[in-house]
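Practice problem 4.
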């Protein structure tokens, strides 16, 4: 196995086409095809499947490419250090629930990168996609929470996908609402006191099972429900409709100063953590992200 073979595999995965990858790598298509065949033969694994529509990664190929890209990134950093020339754009992707501290940590990765070009992705998305993104190596890291209500189901799914959950912090549930909300001056809130106000939750797409919900309090217990997809809409509706949502209480400078968090009397806790492929080492960007998250999570 050579670095050149890893570069070929990376190019084919990016292009989805042998001919286009060969063009970008300045080699003939037969040379590229033979190199990949030899690599698959050596590793005794099928990295790609070929069809009339092009080529795509197998499940084993996704896992292989995640490791290969880390090797290519490490080799690129060594070359850049001693030659002063960037030979590869750093790549990094995170999928998470709607946590502002994750956005702040992602910004630290970008600031620390130092490369003239890079290819980074931050996905604030639904719970099932977070798990799928990490399992299929579209994202190196995922961030979600476990509670008494969802832990058994989510843990079972993570185990099936060979993913690990690394706890970041434990928090009691809090109600997020506007400073002018009728309940804003209370030191704690009971669930029944919220009955007359709209409950805002993040919509989970086709996977609307209770254990995929981003909020620890089930929407089925509420009379007035509004589902949204993004944090900006959530904030506007919280303020404009005297709505509320339930989360960990993790504060951030990215939240509107008009939004406050008040403890809610629920017999549960929120364990927010990192989801990763078990046994796969973190990239340099991944290590920076995890370190930044640990600095920014609430104490």
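Answer key:
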């Amino acid at each position: 196995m050579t670095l050149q073979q890893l570069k070929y595999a990376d190019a084919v995965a990016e292009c989805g086409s042998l001919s286009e990858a060969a063009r970008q790598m300045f080699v003939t298509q037969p040379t590229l095809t033979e190199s990949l065949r030899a690599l698959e033969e050596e590793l005794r694994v099928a990295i790609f499947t070929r069809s009339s529509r092009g080529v795509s990664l197998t499940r084993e190929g996704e896992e292989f490419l995640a490791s290969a890209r880390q090797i290519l990134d490490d080799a690129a950093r060594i070359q850049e250090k001693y030659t002063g020339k960037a030979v590869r754009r750093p790549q990094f992707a995170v999928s998470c629930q709607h946590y502002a501290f994750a956005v702040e940590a992602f910004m630290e990765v970008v600031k620390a990168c130092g490369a003239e070009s890079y290819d980074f992705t931050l996905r604030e998305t639904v719970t099932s996609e977070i798990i799928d993104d990490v399992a299929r190596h579209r994202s190196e890291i995922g961030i979600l929470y476990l509670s008494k209500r969802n832990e058994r189901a989510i843990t079972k799914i993570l185990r099936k996908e060979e993913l690990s959950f690394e706890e970041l912090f434990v928090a009691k549930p809090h109600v997020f609402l506007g400073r002018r909300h009728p309940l804003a001056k209370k030191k704690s809130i009971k669930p029944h006191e919220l009955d007359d106000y709209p409950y805002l939750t993040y919509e989970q797409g086709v996977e609307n099972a209770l254990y995929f919900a981003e909020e620890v309090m089930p929407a089925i217990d509420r009379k007035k429900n509004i589902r949204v997809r993004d944090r900006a809409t959530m904030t506007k509706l919280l303020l404009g409709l005297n709505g509320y949502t339930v989360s960990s209480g993790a504060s951030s400078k990215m939240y509107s100063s008009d939004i406050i968090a008040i403890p809610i009397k629920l017999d549960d806790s929120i364990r927010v953590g990192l989801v990763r492929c078990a046994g796969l080492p973190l990239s340099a960007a991944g290590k920076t992200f995890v370190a930044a998250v640990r600095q920014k999570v609430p104490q």
